[in-house]
Amino acid sequence: MKITRVETIRLDEFTNLLWVRVHTDAGMIGLGETFFGARAAEAYIHETAAPSLIGRDPLQIERIARDLTPYIGFAGTGAETRGRSAIDIALWDLWGRVAEQPVYQLLGGLTHDKMRIYNTCAGYRYVRSRPNWSLDDWGTGGSAEGPYEDLEAFLHDAGALAESLLEEGITGMKIWPFDFAAKASGGYYISNADLDTALEPFRKIRAAVGNKMDIMVELHSLWRFPAAIKIAEALEEFDPFWFEDPIRMDSIDAVADFANATKVPVCASETLGARWEHHKILEAGAAGIIMPDLTWCGGISEAKKIASLAETYHRPIAPHDCSGPVALMACIHLCLNVPNALVQETVRAFYTGWYKELVTTLPKIENGHVYPPEGPGLGTDLLPEVFERPDIHVTATDAD
What is the pLDDT of residue 77? Predict the structure, then answer.
């Protein structure tokens, strides 16, 4: 079996999403996905990666992963890594379809029969229709598209939001009320007034549901060390589950200093890319929880290595996913396989909303857990209607 065609698919409505389909001479097709900078990743795929894949055995996944990482600059989270991540996910999906087995079985089988999820409290438009978002709105505003405008909810009625999540069995929620205050100072300073405003959602959550809800604090690497410490100290009374990306990950020593200054675990980071940067942060003792992004680290192959690396440091992983439906399926397969998976990120506004416009199958999520996908490979595919949309862009590299 040989690769005969590498195809990318974009939709104008979902400017950050890019799908990759790897075709073979046996008529089998594997589906992958990446997120953010879709056109840049698409250009890399067709100018660099795809020509080197045509004619190759698609089941030599590890060899292909090695060959698509020719020098250290390709180990970050740039277009090259995002592009090869989508290719890698597609190859695992293809292998599963060929073997008629789910990806988690190919990875070694289930170590978990189900996986706990948490809800990233985004709305239906969050990082969906624009390549970049302003810290002023993050996609808020406008008319509600459904019952899960959770970003507006955490900003204005966080207690009721926590109660709503608990009613669905979801016991973890991620919020980011500090982002708005970071813009004015570049993250170097937060006023007492802004700090007090940002703490209000935490007060409301604890008043409404007590400690029944784990609160994941997302700081988006927007803060510098002194302000980040001030925020962390103010939050400790609310017993956060983690501090995610409290400062930029470009200074591991500074991240370690932050981690040593708080009792709350640091969760890091989708921005690190491949395993080499994760090794540095683990070696420095700078993170208590590791958060690889399968679409930004090199795909399933690399994420599995990151998970194993974290396990040697007795650290759990919690894969990052606030992107598309194919990436979520890939994350679920990984989580169900690796022993040190702690929890899987989900966005209920996405999986109950626009994901349904794009793929044939979504994972079973029930009572705060996600269950093993059924079917071979990842267990989902793009809907036929996607290919009939007027805003579709399909680009292909074929065998000569």
Answer: 85
